[in-house]
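Entry for the shared binder. Reason: the reviewer on the internal report wants the predicted structure included alongside the sequence.
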Amino acid sequence: MSFKWNNHGLPLLPGYTFRDVTKSAFHRPQTLDSKNGYSVRRRPSVGIGQDPLLSEQLLQQEISELSFEALEITHGPLNRTDDFTFIPAHVALDKKMLCFYAYFMEDVLFSPEEKYRVRPVVIYYYLEDDSMCIIEPVVKNSGLPQGKRTKRQRVPKNEHGDYYQWKDLNLGMDLEVHGVKYHITDCDLFTKEFMESEGIILGNPEPMPEDPYSKHRKIPQPSHTTPSTFDSLQQFITMDGKVLRFFALLDNTDSLYTEMWPVIIHYYLVDDTVEIREVHKRNSGRLPFPVLLRRHKIPKKTKSEAFPRCVLEISKEEVDEYYTPKDFQLGQTISLLGHRFLLYDCDGFTKDYYQKNHPDMEVKSIEVPKKADNVQEQKIEIPPYNGFGSIEDSLQNCFSLIPKPPRRNILKLLENHGKVLRYTAQLDSLNPQDKGRCFILSYFLSDEMISIFEKPTRNCGIISGKFLEKTRVPKPGSSVENPEYYSPADFAIGATVEVFSHRFVLTHADQYVLTYLESISSQIPSQTLDSLRQKLANNQPADQNVLQGESSS
């Protein structure tokens, strides 16, 4: 490079030479550029401060020496040629990596079956940036945390800050990474060709040692069971959906709870499994357990054990015989898992099955033992009626803690809504003051209730009006538990109706009563219809003032 000097007529001596004082640019020229995301070199055209270069050829030589010096430091000396084209390392070695197969041994403590485990890994070495990654192949249901053991990074080689390079890797060597020693056994074909092209002599491949615990798991357990000739597929095709149903009693008379409880035993012919369901009855005082025994095969005879077992489940190898349909005989007691069941009946399909497949077995139902009182229909002990409210409402207190309204016949309410049968009646009493008192008895067809209204009478001294509000009236002599109420069939002309110790004699009725009773003549006695027809034969209307007394008031 050269600089512009200005002596201003002074001799060329030290102290008499000066640079160009008018110069203001002193920056170095840019020799690197970016193209398509990669850094490329660019030949400078000027020197420092935009001064022309003294020798472009000398500058080109200096740049070439610097480029080859960086490559020699990492990848060794290269053959220099005049037509050399510079390629960066991250471009030439992009997506090129070495693959080594290795393993490490992990000690297992407090296990009587294994001392150590052999865990294989794969070591990847990336030539682009000399980084390494260690991955352990995932084994399904191994119970071990597997996968990436060391993420991609430069692995330190020693305490002095040196890192592992591809020259340090070889077959048969131990590679220590973060305190874990990996033994390299083999590599892939690309790694072998690359190492040999770089002059590295690889060792002999070693076989991967086998994990002793995995080897033990692969050994089949000794079995001396003779294979059965029974075709389970044929049983599934022919017996699918066919179930034997037995009605039995759970006999607990020898235990603390001396009772016999009804159950239903289901025997599934498709797989010879047994299910026991409890028959739950309302207000029995017991908690409902729908499934007393879930569906599974019940062993009948097991092999004798010389030492006690700590496992409650019984395997197939320990069972000599399971329960079959031949073991379920009506009238006998069968023991299932320590509980006794008395078989007393079965359904029709079960009887047909035994007659067809086991004709030698007698299938005959037996009577339920008397001591099984809880099997019979249990009657709820209802306390006597206390007189408060209706009998139906009071009865709901015996069925649940939160009483519900009694059910009513909605269809009957809709059909007979607003239909009322009205009669005139006189009070039958020994008291002379009651003579001449006239009443209207109304019978409501929708809810079978009766109301009584007294017609006002002059100078009698008795207050008239509502004598009996709308209520259901039982017949005399009926019990409180099962009362019998009055119906239209009981209201004949001249009949006596007793209402809560008061006797009323029916004297007349309106025309609608006869019309309605004739429409249901099959349900009404002929004597009642004849009395109404005889009274209303001559179209003798009832005292309308009397019949309408209730509405006018």
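Summary line for the report: The longest strand covers residues 97-107.
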